[in-house]
Amino acid sequence: MNRDGTNTDGTTAVMAGSTDVGAAADQDEPAMCFDRATLAYGDRVVWSELSMTVPQGEFLAVLGPNGSGKTSLLRALLGLAPLSSGTLDVLGRPPRRGNPAIGYVPQHAGFDRDVPLRGRDLVGLGVDGHRWGFGRLSPADRLRVETALDDVAARPYADEPIGRLSGGEQQRLRIAQALVGNPQLLLCDEPLASLDMRYQQEITELIGTWSRERHGTVVFVTHDVNPVLAYASRVVFVVNGRWAAGQPDDVLTTETMSGLYEAPVEVLRVRGRIVVVGEASGAGFDLDEPHHFPEPVASH
Ligand SMILES: Nc1ncnc2c1ncn2[C@@H]1O[C@H](COP(=O)(O)OP(=O)(O)OP(=O)(O)O)[C@@H](O)[C@H]1O
Ligand SMILES: [Mg+2]
User: How far apart are CA 147 and CA 153, in angstroms?
Assistant: First the structure.
């Protein structure tokens, strides 16, 4: 993220953040509906023919190895990456940039230790990403910022320079920034990266609780499904352009995962944790091999 709260691609870090709640979707409208959706950058097909409907209020875990297109899936939902074929509706409408119904926690590149921004300012950028500093917000918007800080229990360190806070504290503030606009859909790109297990649990619980209490929909990108197993009502696993989507127990099986990786993979359940073993699951899996696009393994 740049110093002004924008991402390196020029988008604002948080798509939420106006008082435009008139755009709220009907609760019966799915949060998202992919229909034979293919996303490509030039010749590079990232995922192909993805079909998946996610009702509002669900917690979708997005899984897959590096470069499999998890961030690209969020970018499609944000209207930042157009599909090359197929369709996508988000809260009943085609994706559009700056949709105030969507809160976004981008994949974290880390804050510079000396960035002149307090936690409170960062959250304030979620209310109005163009104006600088908490002091410029209206009293009503300040109240929203304080509520968001309370929601993530970040008030004790809200006035510290964000670059000096721990990874877990920074992550809470980034989530508050995404929630301050009262979104219906919250997109979190690897919010657990580089956090230890305790912080992983706290962050996951925070987001899961928000979803339950507000009937908000969560799209949660994570390398490890285990921290979100108690919350995820649905998963989509992407590997080399192929995908499998559905309930965790249906997707995270030896059969489905072996089909996805096109190699023998075993899915074990050990003390309530899911462990995927096999050549394909490790770092040795060759992501650069030619892509094949067979029929999806599972679609719901
Ligand atoms: N704007 C872009 N232009 C061209 N190629 C891109 C662009 N964004 C991503 N890619 C490529 O698309 C593929 C998927 O990238 P993406 O960032 O979605 O993967 P990811 O699953 O989020 O990976 P990671 O786990 O490393 O974050 C990668 O090969 C990447 O290099
Ligand atoms: Mg990514």
Answer: 10
